[in-house]
């Protein structure tokens, strides 16, 4: 069983001017099953045990809070409204065409 731990220094810059120093980390886990009978015959190799490796990143992540402008908010709202109208139009078109196709089949007597 082997585990790897990666650490990265992180600095958060708040809007009020405060600074928070922290760390981000990630953990990886690897395991390997060893068949003792094969290992005794030399067909399989490996050492039993637990191995932990640490990696300290030389980079630093800096996260800063920023307030978005009103125009950015307005653009997002317009995008959402436009998406809703687009999906509604596609759904309306699909339902209309399905209804028309069903009506034609009904007129021809193909609906059982």
| Terminal residue distance | 65 Å
Number of helices: 2
Q: What percent of residues adopt helix (DSSP H or I)?
A: 40-55%
Strand residue content? 25-35%
Structure, explained:
With 112 residues, the protein is of the alpha+beta class. Helix content is 40%, strand content 34%. It has two helices and three strands; from the N terminus they run ββαβα. The chain has helices spanning 36-41, 70-108; strands spanning 2-13, 19-30, 51-64. Strands 2-1-3 form a three-stranded mixed beta sheet, with no helix packed on it. It starts with a strand and ends with a helix.
List keywords for this structure.
34% strand; 112 residues; 3-stranded mixed β-sheet; flat; 40% helix
List the helices and strands and how they pair.
Elements (H helix, E strand, L loop, with lengths): L1 E12 L5 E12 L5 H6 L9 E14 L5 H39 L4
Parallel strand pairs: 1-3
Antiparallel strand pairs: 1-2
Short description:
This protein has 112 residues and is α+β, with helices and mostly antiparallel strands. It has helices spanning 36-41, 70-108, and strands at residues 2-13, 19-30, 51-64.
